[in-house]
Amino acid sequence: MGNYVIVGTQWGDEGKGKIVDLLSEHADYVVRFQGGNNAGHTMVVDGEKFISHLVPSGILQKKKCFIGNGVVVDPEVLLEEIAYLGDKGVDVSPEYLRLSDRAQVIMPYHKRIDHAREIKKGDSKIGTTGRGIGPCYEDKASRVGIRFLDFLNADVLRAKVTEALQEKNFLLTNYFGEEAEDVEATIAHCLKLAKELEPYITDTSVEINEGMDKGQHVVFEGAQGTHLDIDHGTYPFVTSSNTVSGNACGGAGVGPGKITGVLGIVKAYTTRVGAGPFPSELFDEVGSYMQEKGAEFGATTGRRRRCGWFDMVVLRNAVRLNGLTGLVITKLDVLGGLKELKLCTGYEYKGEVITDFPADLDALDNCTQVCETLPGWDDDITGVRSYDDLPENAKAYLKRIEELAGTPVDVVSVGPGREETIVVKKHF
Questions:
Q1: Domain locations in the chain?
Q2: Tally of CB atoms within 10 A around 213
């Protein structure tokens, strides 16, 4: 049995899409278990770039893909993505893509409220993508959300939308100063989308478990990163769901005993999009070098990513929270050309060095990084396919990460392409 959970260890954008695509070659099912279309996974195959926001990355390998019950789904975005991939020659028929009937629907009013809140907050805004993710999860927790099961029942849909808009329209008009959402137009729009998506909707938990019982190998694909987790991240500068590996079970409907291992994807340096604390951030020419060479722009938003040294405090926290069994280091090639590299091994706060990631944002904002310096390398490593052929300083850098994390490096990515990868340990 080989069933692996793939999680980001930093603040997202670690390169999970490429790694899920790579592992999918040897898997049978790929399951997305949380988040929404606020995540963007980029894959490059034979020089062609593919970006997915909801459809699991395994679709390029013609593997059966599932959008689990823990995901919040904008039906318009999903249909657009199905069409986008279809235009690129990818089969996204119901044979290859299944959508949980328990997944929550992102409604038009969720997106409107999301945007209105950010505008009202002004300079104190969180930096949400405005795609309705948070408001949809709020309705789920309040037990007034609309599931795809409800989406297929016109009477249930009408009753739920009518009730929901009593509250949402009060907020839109009286608090945000916006126009009300039209009830009938919303229902008609949703019924049209439901008809198009109906062939994809099923009890995905049953299908996934039946496959696992028959020996099918599964990759569980997470979105965002550990430090955007709503419980364990830099709250409130977080996403609206649990991004840690434990949520793979709840968000897909499988038992924890069926998980073989957890792979943590970590960029060879650290990045973050949007607001929030970032102790190892660089504001000098090295940070700019990483940003330019690494093309650090968000796949979903296009926003510039903040860059900094590799943060071991962040990684060790992710190792503990996720129970990582292996590391995947991405974008190692970006560091080529730097004379020296630094690993942030701790934070100095009020005259003391701390090595555990604090929950207090004020503490994080006033931390300075404590670094260990290692020599860099000049070689272009994008053509390297064997670990032994890496420059000695690159191997020393990876070895030190392993030592400080207490977790082995299983895979190293040296470029965006599927083939630009060094597999140290095979997982299937």
A1: 3-98+201-258, 104-197, 266-423
A2: 9
Look at strands 64-67 and 72-73 and give their pairing. unpaired
Question: In whole angstroms, how far apart are CA 115 and each of 16, 28, 108, 109?
Answer: 27, 38, 11, 10
Average of per-residue pLDDT values in the chain? 94
Residue ranges for the known binding site for GTP are 12-18, 40-42, 305, 331-333, 413-415
Domains 104-197 and 266-423 agree in fold: no
Catalytic residue ranges: 13, 41, 140
Residue 26 has a CB neighbour count (10 Å cut-off) of 14
Q: Give the gyration radius of the chain's Cα atoms.
A: 22
Give me the CATH code for the 3-98+201-258 domain, please.
3.40.440.10
Sign of CA dihedral 30, 242, 50, 307: negative
176-203 tens-digit pLDDT: 999 999 999 999 999 999 999 999 999 9
Q: How confident is the model at residue 141 (pLDDT cuts 50, 70, 90)?
A: very high
CATH of domain 104-197: 1.10.300.10
pTM over 0.90: yes
List binding-site positions for Mg(2+). Answer: 13, 40
246 Cβ contact partners less than 8 Å away, ≥ 6 residues apart: 256, 322
Binding site for IMP, by residue number, is 13-16, 38-41, 129, 143, 224, 239, 303
266-423 fold = Adenylosuccinate Synthetase; Chain A, domain 3 (3.90.170)
